[in-house]
């Protein structure tokens, strides 16, 4: 229920200190449906917003938590697509490197890698 009230605000909240904590808690303790609503809201914002979140001091934690808590392949594919298109921008950003490291660990556990 709370997640539905935040629909449309996920990206903005993810880039704020306390807002990102709220979104992370929803990802950690929310239902599978809540997690998918959050992922769909962030995905709907577009690749530019996802990249901005990856490079943001607070937003990168939300992206990492999405990788940690959502097993749906489309979420991972979306993040891998954004990473592939913006790899050099991410590798030159401290927060982007954190996302890359988390993604590499997660993909290695699956027996895959960043193409």
Automatic annotation (TrEMBL):
Keyword list, A-Z: Repeat, Translation regulation
Pumilio repeat feature ranges: 5-40, 41-81
GO biological process: regulation of translation
InterPro entries: ARM-like, ARM-type_fold, PUM-HD, Pumilio_RNA-bd_rpt
UniProt cross-references to Pfam families, sorted A to Z: PUF
Domain PUM-HD: 1-107
Name this protein carries in UniProt: Os04g0276400 protein
Presence of the UniProt keyword Repeat in the record: yes
Top-level division of the source organism's lineage: Eukaryota
GO MF term set: RNA binding
Top-level taxonomy: Eukaryota, Viridiplantae, Streptophyta, Embryophyta, Tracheophyta
Source organism of this protein record: Oryza sativa subsp. japonica
């Amino acid at each position: 229920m709370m997640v539905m009230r935040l629909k449309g605000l996920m990206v903005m909240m993810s880039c704020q200190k306390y807002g990102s904590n709220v979104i992370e808690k929803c990802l950690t303790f929310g239902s599978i449906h809540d997690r998918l609503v959050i992922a769909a809201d962030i995905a709907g914002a577009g690749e530019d917003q996802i990249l901005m979140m990856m490079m943001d001091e607070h937003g990168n934690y939300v992206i990492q938590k999405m990788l940690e808590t959502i097993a749906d392949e489309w979420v991972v594919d979306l993040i891998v697509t954004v990473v592939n298109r913006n790899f050099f921008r991410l590798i030159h950003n401290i927060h982007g490197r954190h996302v890359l490291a988390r993604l590499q660990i997660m993909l290695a556990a699956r027996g895959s890698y960043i193409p």
